[in-house]
Design brief:
The structure is a single chain. With 276 residues, the chain is an alpha/beta fold. The protein has 11 helices and 11 strands. It has 2 domains: 1-91, Spore Coat Polysaccharide Biosynthesis Protein SpsA, Chain A, CATH 3.90.550; 92-276, Alpha-Beta Complex (Spore Coat Polysaccharide Biosynthesis Protein SpsA, Chain A), CATH 3.90.550.10. Helices cover 41% and strands 22% of the residues. 34% of the residues are buried.
């Protein structure tokens, strides 16, 4: 089965992280023949040099100005030549068997339109935190989970291009482009799944918890809940409860928010695991 890879890069990326990310996809046991990278606005020389190293393996799309992750991915997706598309972030690492495992899912479940998996977070080297972010596996559990939180780790997903385009493609939505898209995709009740294993190693930095807070983030949390309600995917009571819970997390000090994310939501099962 053929597939495309979809990535977006902007000016503030780390060139070494970008290089490692690209290499992790080129090292897949089943390689791609359509690696789409959208240059979201002008890039500094250090990033252009990295892209030049792999130029023969890449399908580069250059945007004259920075448009943001959602619109950039939407432009890139429209240019992907295969029905199956694997998302990849420009600073994370895909494990070598990731693609093979996801292609097997689509071969075995022809009706499936979206497949993700777990991630393991790290700071300097993969495995240094021992922190795994789990997501629900079965379609029914994913539909229930999406009322409260994002049921997919974006960097891990492989999806059918036609399903994403039919749902309206990626759009701009303040740090939640993927969550908002999944709501639109799931509103038609397709078959979706997650693999119960880590597919990618994801970098986390000191700024992650600051980015997950603030009034602007809270505004978009409300908009997501309102969309779920309008699509009949949640109830007014569930919406009110979810907005209240997420509001508390968004406005608390970042140091305490970090504690909530890494301890309160953690389950002790060998390696530490979190569900959001």
């Amino acid at each position: 089965m053929n597939y495309s890879v979809l990535m977006a890069v902007y000016a503030k990326e780390n060139p070494q992280f970008l290089k490692a990310s690209i290499e992790s996809m080129l090292a897949q046991t089943i390689p791609t023949d359509d690696f789409v990278i959208v240059k979201d606005g002008p890039l500094p020389a250090c990033l252009e040099e990295v892209l030049q190293i792999y130029h023969d393996h890449l399908h580069l799309i250059s945007l004259a100005r920075n448009v943001g992750l959602g619109p950039a991915l939407g432009i890139g997706l429209a240019s992907c030549k295969h029905e199956l598309v694997a998302r990849m972030d420009s600073d994370d690492l895909s494990r070598p068997q990731r693609i093979a495992k996801q292609l097997a899912v689509f071969a075995q479940q022809p009706e499936c339109v979206l497949c993700g998996g777990y991630i393991e977070e790290f700071i300097e080297e993969p495995g240094d935190l021992g922190l795994i972010k789990k997501v629900p596996i079965e379609t029914k559990d994913i539909f229930n989970f999406i009322k409260r939180r994002n049921p997919f780790n974006h960097v891990t997903v492989m999806f059918k291009k036609s399903a994403i385009m039919q749902a309206g493609n990626y759009q701009s939505f303040y740090f939640n482009e993927d969550y908002e898209l999944w709501i639109r995709v799931l509103s038609s009740h397709p078959q979706v799944t997650n693999l119960a294993e880590c597919l990618c190693d994801v970098r986390v930095g000191n700024g992650m918890f600051e980015r997950r807070g603030g009034w602007k983030y809270l505004k978009y949390d409300y908009a997501l809940q309102k969309k779920l309600l309008n699509l009949g995917m949640t109830s007014p009571l569930e919406m009110s409860m979810n907005v209240a819970l997420r509001s508390a997390v968004r406005i608390m000090p970042s140091s305490f928010r970090k504690h909530v994310y890494t301890h309160f939501l953690r389950q002790n099962q060998g390696k530490n695991t979190i569900t959001d």
